[in-house]
Amino acid sequence: METVLPDGCGNAPRVSIVADVVSAWTARDDGALSAMLAESAVWRVVGAGQSPEAGAADALAALLGADALVRRIEFDDIITHGRLASCTGRIVAADAAGNERAIEFSHHLRFAGAAKTAPVAAVRTFLGGGSTR
């Protein structure tokens, strides 16, 4: 899976952490996610017909489809400030026939503390319906 980061965002220490969290979520890598999330972390998904109580991985799977292969994550921006961070972009996936579909996202993260090593305490994800490419 390719990850496309915005230009000029390499100087904030949490930019790569935010990209890693979103990449692990997209790849459905529970091991990597659990290493970055606080034990009591809450992740809510809103939009595109999703219930806020739905699991974050389940919400993405429902939008992409069971046979979808994620090809890349395209970040438009990643913004961090203190304990807060946000990012926007899209997930581009292909079905078994190779037809690409893009799902728009906006993630808003709150870290458990100000230290660079603090885990993510909360995420709110907004998903937009996919468009065929």
From TrEMBL:
InterPro entries: NTF2-like_dom_sf. SUPFAM superfamilies: NTF2-like (SSF54427). This is SnoaL-like domain-containing protein.
